[in-house]
Amino acid sequence: MEFNKKPKILFDEDEIAKRVKELGKGISNDYKGDNIVVISLLRGSFVFAADLVRALHVPVNVDFMTTSSYGHSETSSGIVEIINDIRTDIKGKHVLIVDDIMDSGNTMKEVVEYIGEEEPKSIKVCVMLDKPSRREADITPDYVGFTIPDVFIVGYGLNYGDYYRNIPYIFTFDD
Asked: Is 156 left (phi over 0), alpha (psi -120 to 50) or beta?
């Protein structure tokens, strides 16, 4: 897959690494003395989640959930499907849901409600990118890497079609 426009880098590798360390420090301080279960929403968050859990300084159990609302489109369909569920018993445990981006908030709202049915001690949300101008659901992430305007972004786990998750920086084609 080739791009017709030149990419514009929004956040380079160094900016991302610095921010992930800051998030890790803040989250570790908030959960000091506790264990947490990090639930990474696949596939987009796997790069961010891997870097984030290495930046945490509290005991961490990692699990994964696969959801879908985009398919191959640049915008959400509005229908959230849970494709693969977690395997960890989270009852009475602190849960941190990690995702690559929150825009409409529909997926995260549904995931938080779904996870809440398992009676965890607490649920917090951490996203690498927050796009609040697109918010439809009443949900705000607890931890945010970067807040961005309404642009289509790629890289650092975020895909375009089935590709470009491996790009180590975050970029856009929008002006």
From this structure: left
Domain count, the chain: 1
User: Containing domain of residue 96, as a range?
Assistant: 8-70+77-172
How does pLDDT run across 113-160, given as a tens digit for each residue?
999 999 999 999 999 999 999 999 999 999 999 999 999 899 999 888
Q: What is the DSSP letter of 76?
A: -
> 103, 138, 142, 174: which is the annotated catalytic residue?
103
Which ranges in the chain belong to alpha helices (H)? 13-30, 46-55, 106-116
Count other Cβ atoms within 10 Å, centred on residue 172: 17
3 assigned to some structural domain: no
- 112: phi > 0 → left, psi -120 to 50 → alpha, else beta; which? alpha
| Residue pair 115/129 in contact by the 8 Å Cβ criterion | no
**Annotated catalytic, 103?**
yes
d(CA 93, CA 60): 11
Instruction: Give the pTM.
Output: 0.90
> Tokens in use for 116?
């809440």
- Domain CATH code at residue 24: 3.40.50.2020
Cα 63 to Cα 47: distance, rounded to the nearest angstrom: 14
- Predicted confidence at residue 116, as pLDDT, reads 96
